[in-house]
Amino acid sequence: MQIQVVKSKIHRVTVTGADLNYIGSITIDEALLEASNILEGEKVAIVNINNGERLETYAIKGNRNSGEITLNGPAARKVQKGDIIIIIAYGILDFEEAKTFKPSLIFPNEKDNSLT
User: Fold this and answer.
1) 90 annotated active-site
2) If phi over 0 gives left and psi between -120 and 50 gives alpha, with beta otherwise, what is residue 65?
3) Domain of 88: which CATH number?
4) Which one of the listed residues 8, 22, 25, 104 is annotated catalytic?
5) pTM of the model
6) For residue 29, what are the domain limits?
7) What's residue 116's pLDDT?
8) Does residue 15 contact residue 69 with C-beta atoms inside 8 Å?
9) 104 part of the active site
């Protein structure tokens, strides 16, 4: 049997922008992607702490150490600049493997989305 588990999580980052006219996705600072083990193009779930919205999209790489968290395309209607969100990526593992799997969880600074 296989189950879906949390693979990666960027916990409580601040939205820096919302671009309705972009073709879609979420732009995430490259340093945050690497630290959380999320790949460019990977499917992610977004949970908005401010309004309870939940959505799925895919990650694209933003400039390293920029702190950028921008929701693009239709997802831009689900957030406002300054909202706090959680970004989650899931993986599918065999049941026994999932018992010992350790996800990559990061807790950036909410003020500037930095890792320090």
Assistant:
1) no
2) left
3) 2.40.40.20
4) 25
5) 0.96
6) 2-103
7) 81
8) yes
9) no
